[in-house]
């Protein structure tokens, strides 16, 4: 059930400008390695996303979407203000752990990303945390 940091997601109305900033100022590079296959479903999330990396960790720069939670019926909206994401090798055990700790979570399944089962929850300050397991 170990969780390791996978990516940070920044939500913005200015994806192209933010992408250029992180590539030009910080030297990150566009990447297609281990990035999610977005479903681009208007009923879930169809925003632009830029994927950049320092070679070790990813930064996902996503189009802000304040309505995604309402459209999907989920209590946690990961593209309203962004989130920190961890990957686990046993999401079932991780969900059981959250329940035992009394931490409610929103289970998005693979509705937004093909091949990643995603859950989201809040830390005590209201920051959104994603934990996902990659299929296969």
Which strand order does the major sheet show? Answer: 2-4-5-1-6-10-9-7
* Biggest β-sheet strands, sense, barrel: 8 strands, mixed
User: How far apart lie the N and C ends?
Assistant: 15 Å
Secondary-structure arrangement, i.e. CATH architecture? Roll
Shape: globular
Number of strands: 10
- CATH classification, class level: Alpha Beta
Mean pLDDT, to the nearest integer, reads: 90
Integer count of domains:
1
Strand content: 35-45%
Taking pLDDT < 50 over at least 5 consecutive residues as the criterion, the unreliable ranges are none
Provide the CATH topology: 2,3-Dihydroxybiphenyl 1,2-Dioxygenase, domain 1
CATH homologous superfamily caption: 2,3-Dihydroxybiphenyl 1,2-Dioxygenase, domain 1
Pfam family, one: Glyoxalase
Domain VOC: 4-134
Keywords: Dioxygenase, Oxidoreductase
GO molecular function: dioxygenase activity
Question: Which features would summarize this protein structure in a list?
Answer:
2,3-Dihydroxybiphenyl 1,2-Dioxygenase, domain 1, 3 helices, 8-stranded mixed β-sheet, alpha+beta, single chain, 136 residues, two-stranded antiparallel sheet
Description:
It is a single chain. The chain is α+β, with helices and mostly antiparallel strands. The chain has one domain: 2,3-Dihydroxybiphenyl 1,2-Dioxygenase, domain 1, CATH 3.10.180. The chain is built from 3 helices and 10 strands; from the N terminus they run βαββββαβαββββ. The protein has an 8-stranded mixed beta sheet. The protein has a two-stranded antiparallel sheet with strand order 3-8. The longest helix has 11 residues, at 91-101. The chain starts with a strand and ends with a strand.
């Amino acid at each position: 059930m170990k969780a390791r940091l996978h990516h940070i997601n920044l939500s913005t109305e200015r994806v192209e400008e933010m992408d250029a900033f992180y590539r030009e100022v910080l030297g990150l590079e566009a990447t297609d390695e281990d990035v999610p296959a977005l479903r681009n479903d208007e009923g879930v999330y169809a925003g632009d996303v830029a994927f950049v990396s320092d070679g070790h960790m990813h930064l996902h720069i996503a189009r802000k979407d304040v309505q995604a939670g309402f459209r999907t019926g989920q209590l946690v909206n990961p593209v309203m203000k962004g989130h920190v994401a961890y990957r686990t090798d046993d999401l079932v055990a991780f969900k059981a752990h959250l329940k035992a700790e009394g931490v409610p979570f929103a289970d998005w399944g693979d509705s937004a990303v093909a091949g990643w089962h995603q859950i989201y929850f809040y830390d005590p300050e209201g920051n959104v945390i994603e934990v996902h397991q990659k299929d296969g």
